[in-house]
Specification:
Elements lengths: L3 H17 L18 E2 L28 E3 L1 H7 L4 H5 L40 E5 L21 E7 L4 H4 L6 E7 L5 E11 L2 E14 L2 E12 L2 E2 L27 E4 L2 E4 L27 E3 L1 E14 L4 E16 L5 E7 L15 E7 L9 E17 L5 E20 L2 H9 L17 H6 L3 E4 L2 E19 L2 E24 L5 E21 L10 E13 L3 E13 L4 E12 L3 H5 L4 E7 L8 E7 L8 E15 L2 E17 L20 E3 H13 L3 E4 L12 E4 L3 E20 L5 E17 L7 E2 L10 E11 L2 E10 L2 E3 L6 E3 L5 E8 L6 H4 L2 E8 L32 E9 L1
Parallel strand pairs: 3-5, 26-31, 27-32
Antiparallel strand pairs: 1-2, 2-4, 4-5, 6-7, 6-42, 7-8, 8-13, 9-12, 10-11, 10-16, 13-14, 14-17, 15-16, 17-18, 18-19, 18-20, 19-21, 20-21, 21-22, 22-23, 23-24, 24-25, 25-28, 26-27, 28-29, 29-33, 30-32, 33-34, 34-35, 34-36, 36-37, 37-40, 38-39, 40-41, 41-42
């Protein structure tokens, strides 16, 4: 981790500047601070009559049968996350599988062409969690919604319901719902600056939020700029091919610089420069071995610019207008590995060197282009904006009518412009003209024009998405019972989605062509709350008993219609204890990009060899599948919330999700060969002549090779094929338990202590790769949901200082990508954060409202547990990016102003 000392000195300099900065006094939001750490909301308490809590459409009622995990403003501030997606990933129920900048090797990863991050609750699926903005849908890239579009300064709170909710919200809410609730209570100015430094890594964030609250309304606007550097695999010792020092395998390859020449079935390790003068020094039966994926980023450089705003105005006592909106642009740059390939060199090559005794007309060279060609850097952006104006009418009684319209646009761009042009490369290898030939012998004689010609392959992938959403809903009480008011919410939602998938694959100058698709969704829903026992008729054993029923009908213009119910019950036998349960069905409509494919191409990839040794070269197909059908799920849960004392609250939930017709894609799964027997008869994995014939068939249909080169430049040499299209193959059953504990301990003279713990423990996770397949346990295995994940913190508030110690635990698991299987150790990094309210320390006129923070993430510089897997194109290698962080220790300093 070279360079850490230099970065520490830089951190010290920046901190000194921050401390020397004078600023006016800042004041906080109106309202009370929330307890530190995630907490479950009170299921037995009435919500504010004007608030709709995530998980229910009913105003003034908390969800029945489900619990809400909430991150309040104080939690958001204390988290130190530079973007909203990283904030939410700190919740134990969120797993880093699929749509993640760290790893694209799991389901959904192949569609993550702009290296975004989304939320995968419980690891059930990267598209099985619905993300809302202030309770309504938002524009996305036809793949996944990125929470980072909302700046952390513009967030009031985050609410998570880890329970099926299609009866309430429609498609995608199989694993649950995440609601990003923007600020509407900020009355003043808040600004923040934060910097973090680690070994060969840095990040920073600056932002400002301005808000005004008055008798009849409010307005708020927040802006945030963040930047996070890349982390190169070359800067981490565990990202290597030769893992024998860790007790693992030697995954080195022979595609090196200098390479390995193979002639007449004999291998020869090439010297740095091979000429007719020294060809006699070649030694038969030798090879050059080297690391694969040299120079590849473990995660890309990311730059965020995000703005969001809210406004509310009570025009009259019965008529209110409101609005929210956002604009976000995230730019990324990812450095891939240098190209490597097996070259076929014919004797017509201008610099052909003939090994002694070889009489053939051509041979092959396992070769790496690191000394010849630049890397094919991936650059792009994800740009999204949306506005949602609405109106609210108060009707007789407590009824309200609300309508809103959402207008949003998305623009994703992923560009690579220096790809390997296989056609030009083969022509240059065969050329007898030194001006146009390629020199694979290390003497650097290839002309600049030729080098440009063989590295001018374009891969351009724009995606344009338009979203129009309409909502009309009515909400109020039907009748008053002794136990409380019977409440009803009903409404209509309409969605109009237009997606344009662009693609350019070919030599420089190839034009982008677009395919345009549209979808319309019409939905109607109703939700009813019946309080049987409440404050008006409570009796022994029945302090409270309420039943909730919801149903929703969705009609899609392209994939049919569906009706989904949900039932919930809350029972409070004694004050302070609530027992709850829920049952429902959910569904997810396949994405437009899943149906029609991001591209129609073949991709050369290196696959983990379950037997060990060098990765196997295979070719995966990405294309359309117009027969995709919606996914379906049945979910149920039981749990309880117990206020043991006014300062101690314990919550636990046992849940079960049965998921069928699951859409899955194996394009990015480079460990798929470890499960090859399970795919028998599906056509997903083909070997030998079957693989060759399938590739030849696709080529004859106009499908092109978009990445890599065929062995020896000839598709007839293909021996491994993977169908990477989306298919309705999967089914899974997942069962587990979530828990949350919050304990507040005030003292007379030593401040207040807060002890918080939250975790997720899985009892069962079985999957089958086909509808008729035999379910197999994948629980606690690599790239699958893990058995135990938890996060705990101890917070000491002693004005003007606050100290927080946080531990994040990921339990050990089994690496099934290698035989024999490997036991991977647990991972428990510890973070320390200290903050000072400088105004409370004295000199209020100078430092009032100024807060200084210092943080050490991964306090003990814990390295990721060793995982015996080869470096992969989509992440990982010597470690598991879905379960551990490769950065190491990070020191951070922050300054926050409130006025």
């Amino acid at each position: 981790m070279a360079g850490f000392g230099r970065q520490l000195r830089c951190a010290g300099s920046v901190l000194a500047i921050m401390l020397a900065t004078q600023a006016p006094a800042f004041a906080q939001d109106s309202g009370e601070a929330s307890p530190a750490g995630p907490e479950t909301q009170q299921a037995d308490a009435e919500a504010s009559s004007e608030i709709i809590v995530t998980g229910s459409r009913l105003r003034g009622a908390a969800p029945v049968g489900s619990t809400v995990i909430a991150l309040g403003r104080e939690d958001i501030t204390a988290a130190g996350a530079i973007s909203t997606d990283r904030l939410i990933q700190q919740i134990p129920q969120v797993l880093d599988l699929g749509v993640s900048e760290n790893s694209r090797a799991q389901g959904g990863g192949s569609g993550n062409i702009t290296y975004g991050n989304t939320i995968n609750l419980r690891g059930i699926g990267p598209y099985a969690t619905l993300i809302l903005v202030d309770g309504h849908r938002a524009v996305n890239n036809s793949r996944a919604f990125e929470p980072s579009v909302i700046p952390t300064l513009g967030l009031e709170r985050v609410e998570v319901v880890a329970d099926g909710a299609s009866a309430i919200y429609g498609s995608d809410a199989i694993a649950g719902v995440v609601n990003l609730i923007p600020r509407r209570t900020l009355n003043g100015i808040e600004a923040t600056a934060r910097g973090g430094w680690g070994a060969d890594f840095d990040e920073y964030q600056v932002g400002v939020a301005v808000g005004k609250v008055w008798d009849r309304g409010q307005v708020m606007l927040a802006y945030e700029h963040s930047r996070r550097s890349n982390l190169s695999g070359d800067d981490r010792s565990f990202f290597r091919s030769d893992q024998r020092a860790f007790g693992g395998n030697d995954y080195r390859v022979t595609r090196c610089a200098p390479g390995t020449l193979r002639a007449g079935g004999v291998a020869y390790a090439m010297p740095g420069q091979l000429t007719p003068a020294n060809v006699g020094s070649l030694v038969a039966g030798t090879v050059n071995s080297c690391d694969d994926l040299v120079g590849q980023d473990l995660f890309p450089k990311q730059t965020y610019n995000s703005v969001n705003g809210t406004a509310t105005f009570e025009v009259t006592d019965w008529f209110t207008v409101f609005a929210d909106g956002f604009y976000s642009k995230r730019e990324y740059e990812r450095l891939p590995a240098y190209f490597s390939s097996t070259l076929t060199v014919p004797q017509t090559n201008a610099w052909f060197v003939r090994p002694t005794g070889f009489a053939g007309t051509s041979y092959t060279i396992d070769y790496n282009f690191r000394n010849d060609l630049p890397r094919d850097v991936s650059r792009g952006f994800a740009e999204n904006w949306q506005v949602t104006p609405g109106v609210r009418f108060k009707l007789p009684g407590d009824w309200e009518l609300e309508g809103l319209f959402t207008y949003g646009r998305g623009n994703d761009q992923s560009d690579q412009v220096r790809g390997l042009n296989a056609t030009a490369l083969n022509a240059a290898l065969a050329s007898s003209n030194p001006a146009t030939a390629f020199d694979p012998y290390g003497l650097g004689r290839t002309s600049a024009a030729t080098l440009l010609a063989i590295s001018n392959f374009l891969t351009l992938s724009p995606t344009l998405n338009d979203f129009n959403g309409y909502e009309a809903r009515i909400n109020g009480s039907i009748v008053d019972l002794p136990g409380g008011s019977v409440k009803l919410a009903a409404g209509y939602e309409g969605q109009e989605i237009e997606t344009r998938l662009g693609s350019a694959r070919g030599a420089a100058g190839t034009a982008v062509t677009f395919r345009q698709f549209s979808r319309r969704v019409d939905s109607a829903y109703a939700e009813l709350l019946v309080p049987i026992f409440g404050s008006g008729n409570a009796t022994a054993g029945f302090e409270r008993l309420e039943i909730n029923a919801a149903v929703r009908y969705d009609k899609y213009s392209d994939v049919g219609d569906t009706t989904n119910p949900k039932f919930g019950v809350n029972w409070s036998p004694v004050r302070g204890l609530v027992l709850r349960g829920s049952y429902g069905t959910s569904f997810r409509a396949p994405l437009i990009s899943q149906i029609y494919g991001n591209s129609n191409n073949l991709f050369g990839q290196s696959y983990q060899n379950p037997a060990g040794g060098a990765p196997l070269t295979g070719f995966a197909y990405s294309g359309p599948n117009t027969n995709l059908a919606p996914e379906e799920a049945t979910t149920w849960s039981v749990g309880g919330d117990w206020d043991v004392t006014p300062n101690l609250r314990v919550s636990a939930t046992y849940w079960d999700v049965k998921y069928i017709n699951q859409v899955d894609s194996y394009l990015a799964d480079l460990a798929i060969l470890s499960r090859e027997s399970e795919f028998s008869g599906t056509g997903i994995i083909l070997r030998g002549t079957a693989a060759r014939d399938r590739v030849l068939q696709l080529l004859s249909q106009g499908v092109t090779l978009a990445r890599g080169t065929f062995p020896g430049g000839d598709p007839n040499n293909v021996t491994l094929f993977v169908d990477g299209r989306n298919n309705n193959l999967g089914q899974s059953t997942t069962r587990g338990m979530d828990f949350v504990v919050n304990w507040r301990v005030p003292t007379e003279n030593a401040g207040t202590f807060n002890f918080n713990a939250a975790g997720a423990y899985l009892f069962h996770y079985e999957t089958a790769v086909s509808p008729a397949g035999t379910p197999r346990s994948r629980l606690n295995t690599i790239y699958n949901p893990l058995k135990f994940k938890a996060r705990g913190s101890v917070v000491w508030d002693y004005e003007p200082m606050r100290v927080q110690l946080t531990a994040t635990h990921v339990g050990g698991y089994t690496n099934t990508a290698i035989n024999p299987n490997q036991k991977v150790k647990s991972y428990t990094p510890i973070d320390l954060a200290v903050s000072w309210n400088l105004g409370e320390m004295g000199a209020k006129s100078l430092f009032g409202g100024v807060e200084l923070g210092l943080e050490v993430r991964n306090l003990f510089d814990l390295q990721p547990p060793y995982v015996n897997v080869a470096p992969g194109l989509n992440g990982g290698g010597g470690y598991d990016p879905s379960a551990a962080n490769p950065i190491g220790r990070v020191l951070a300093a922050s300054l926050r102003f409130r006025m």
